[in-house]
């Protein structure tokens, strides 16, 4: 049976694991669901583990993570490829874990900042260019102070 | 279909500094439209509110011109330039992402600009010369910028003692000229004051609750210009800071509230006025200055949030993190600075506030 302070979470691929309640309620979604009976959250297992690792770290730090400095631990945590970042983001978004959302958003923003050109950004994020060539040229001129 | 859903992209782009953000406008139509989208701008400003910055003019004796730098926790130190104004200027006030600058060459010419987006507006010259007879130096003593992003407008305030008629002596009338960006006009009202202001008092004007605030030279109260009712008021400082303690006191903003930072030889106290209506001050922190013993006499607080305080000395910009009790040097002048960094340091935050 569950120890009194743990929540049981079942992932999409039917793995069940226990998470300490104080950590589980970092997720706004779980917090709300805890009041409902027979509810299930659908996230795949690998990212559940990732999310809870990160949430655990936050609770340990008593949420004292200063916003402007991703601690060493978090920097390493987010050094994963785009697929993983995407999954983390989707999990964080769905489970509504703010600290994780913030961390992934910052990491992806840093990746964009480091991107040297627009075409690479499009490829990395799988975005279609919906500008006509002329429009794109006009915008580039307007932003010419940016030395694109 | 894009790899990341739109709401996720928006959270990501809201964390980009302005230059790379504008660079990404050519990626696609959605990204292009974001800086003009109300929801995105609000989110962007919410994120940048948590990232305090310090703008400093560095006068390096080995270089002919001074340079402008921006210091913050997420990007460190970066250079920026106001040369898009095509005039040599002094930064007089900073508020919610905009700067108010005065022309060095031509007295009476003021600019309001967003140094990150490089948009600017030249304020109309005040036609009636009688309105601008400030004393001394023919320049306004107090310059304030009240930038209100929620109403999409700003006001510029020039206030000071005026000379009567053609005499060069002050007649104690305290004139206040207000420029309203909505009407694009100046208006004036007069009152009488007996106050003096130090250099730091004048640099550290705070805009909260629709009013501009300046600490007075005597340190006994804060002078307030209520922009809604166009009246001058006084707000008291905590009793503990008022009575002859010999400590230095500075007025800053802290997360939308008035804050006073009191510095003695060995500690720094941070006061915040959490209840503006009842003028109630709370001491929220008492920081030991043991780590920076040698710097204490020449250190000045410039910008802060609830998480950290940025300070400037003659040659350095430091940050103190309140939750981890850690001090960090963010910037240091390489050569001899002819003017101390604190002399021309302003609190700043980036924003996409347009000013044209």
From TrEMBL, chain B:
InterPro entries associated with the record: F-box-assoc_dom_typ1, F-box-assoc_interact_dom, F-box-like_dom_sf, F-box_dom, Gal_Oxase/kelch_b-propeller, SCF_F-box_component
SMART domains assigned: FBOX
Superkingdom of the organism of origin: Eukaryota
Pfam family, one: FBA_1
Chain ranges of the F-box domain: 1-47
Name under which the protein is recorded: F-box domain-containing protein
Organism from which the protein derives: Gossypium raimondii (Peruvian cotton)
């Amino acid at each position: 049976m569950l120890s009194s302070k743990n929540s049981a979470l079942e992932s999409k691929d039917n793995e069940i694991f226990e998470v300490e309640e104080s950590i589980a309620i970092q997720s706004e979604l779980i917090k709300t669901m805890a009041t409902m009976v027979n509810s299930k959250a659908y996230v795949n297992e690998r990212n559940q583990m990732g999310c809870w690792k990160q949430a655990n770290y936050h609770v340990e730090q008593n949420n004292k993570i200063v916003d402007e400095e991703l601690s060493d631990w978090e920097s390493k945590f987010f050094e994963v490829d785009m697929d993983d970042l995407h999954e983390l983001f989707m999990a964080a978004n769905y489970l509504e874990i703010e600290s994780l959302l913030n961390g992934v958003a910052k990491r992806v923003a840093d990746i964009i900042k480091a991107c040297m050109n627009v075409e690479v950004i499009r490829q990395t994020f799988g975005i279609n260019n919906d500008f006509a060539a002329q429009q794109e040229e006009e915008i580039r001129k307007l932003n010419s102070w940016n030395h694109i | 279909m894009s790899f990341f859903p739109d709401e996720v992209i928006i959270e990501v782009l809201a964390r980009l500094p302005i230059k790379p953000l504008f660079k990404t406008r050519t990626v696609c139509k959605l990204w292009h439209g974001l800086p003009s989208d109300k929801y995105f701008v609000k989110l962007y400003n919410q994120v940048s509110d948590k990232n305090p910055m310090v703008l400093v003019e560095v006068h390096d004796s080995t270089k002919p011109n001074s340079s402008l730098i921006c210091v913050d926790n997420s990007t460190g130190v970066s250079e920026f330039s106001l040369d898009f104004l095509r005039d040599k200027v002094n930064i007089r006030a900073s508020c919610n992402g905009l700067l108010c600058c005065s022309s060095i060459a031509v007295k009476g010419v003021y600019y309001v600009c967003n140094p990150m987006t490089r948009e600017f507006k030249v304020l109309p010259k005040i036609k009636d010369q009688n309105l601008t007879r400030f004393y001394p130096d023919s320049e306004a003593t107090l310059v304030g910028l009240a930038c209100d992003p929620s109403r999409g407008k700003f006001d510029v305030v020039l206030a000071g003692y005026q000379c009567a008629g053609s005499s060069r002596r002050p007649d104690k009338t305290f004139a206040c000229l207000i420029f309203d960006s909505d009407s694009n006009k100046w208006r004036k009202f007069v009152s009488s004051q007996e106050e003096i202001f130090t250099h730091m008092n004048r640099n550290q004007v705070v805009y909260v609750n629709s009013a501009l605030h300046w600490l007075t030279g005597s340190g006994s109260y804060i002078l307030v210009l209520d922009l809604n009712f166009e009246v001058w008021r006084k707000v008291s400082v905590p009793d503990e800071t008022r009575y002859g303690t010999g400590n230095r006191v500075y007025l800053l903003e802290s997360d939308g509230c008035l804050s006073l930072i009191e510095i003695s030889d060995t500690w720094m106290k941070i006061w915040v006025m959490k209840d503006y209506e009842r003028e109630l001050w709370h001491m929220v922190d008492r920081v030991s200055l043991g780590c920076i013993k040698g710097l204490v006499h020449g250190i000045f607080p410039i910008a802060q949030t609830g998480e950290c305080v940025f300070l400037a000395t003659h040659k350095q910009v430091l940050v103190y993190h309140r939750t981890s009790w850690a001090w960090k040097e963010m910037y240091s002048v390489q050569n001899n600075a002819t003017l101390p960094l604190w002399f021309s340091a302003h609190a700043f935050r980036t924003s996409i506030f347009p000013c044209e």
